[in-house]
Each structure stands twice: as structure tokens, then as C-alpha cells.
Amino acid sequence: LRVDTVALPNGKTSLREVVEHPGGVCIAALTEQNELLFVRQFRYPYGEVLLELPAGKLDAGEDPLEAGKRELKEETGAAARDYTDLGKLYPSPGYCGEVIHMYMATGLSYGEMNPDEDEFLEVEKIPLKKAAQMVLDNEIRDAKTQAAVMKVYVKTMVF
After folding, report:
1. What is the pLDDT of residue 159?
2. What is the pTM (predicted TM-score) of this model?
């Protein structure tokens, strides 16, 4: 956390608190049956279990796609043949410099999960169409998950 003094357009100054964050990654893993892989996990700041796509924090200098592959494997046991870049998300630009890199993963194969020792995850498959409706119904509250689900839903629609 840092506090900066910034010059405002009117010539005055103000303070800005900034949370420095190394960035993160989010993977929307889509099965052959058009389902997304989700994890349920307790999130301390909210005091509740959230439904999220597999995701994680980047290590310093780490390639986002490689981090995404690692997180997908650790959290769900899945690996993918193909990855599609879904863009970047700025989750809280008012106070945090975090950038979340989002990817769609397809051509899945499965192995053993290997979550971090402080992660207690429950993996769940949800049909893509249902997941998109869950976003619209506010049953999925996590911002990165909302954005990635809707991007995959639109990207895979037949117009």
C-alpha cells in the first residue's frame, strides 16, 4: 500500500491510496459438453463461499498464460490444448493497480488437483448457458468470473 500526493486539474493536490498488486489470471475452461469448470471457495473478506472460475495471483515477472495453466491444473486438475486470450480486466481502478488476464481454455484433459495448502476448493461443472444466466441473476458475484463467463458466452454464440 502506498499513499501518493497527486496534482489535480484545478491546481490543487490530493492524496491517493494505491494497493500495489502483481496481477492475476482467470481461466474459463470450457468442456466438450459446453460446461465451464468452477471452484467454490471461502473468501475471507466477504465471509462467504463464492463460485469462481479458476484463478490466481501472478508471481513477479511471471507470464500470465503460464500462470493460468498452473492455476487451472492446481485448482481443477485440468489441462487444456488450446487457450484464447479474452483480454484484461481492471477490477478496482479507484485504488488498486491489479490487472487480471483472462483466457478461455478448450481441449481439456484431466488429472490430479494440487491446490495450495491454504486452498480448500470444490470443483463444479456448470453449463455455459446456465452460468451466463447465473451472472445475470447475481448468483455469481465475483467480477473476474462475471466478465469471463459473459465473454465466453458471447464468443461461442452462433449468430
Report:
1. 61
2. 0.91
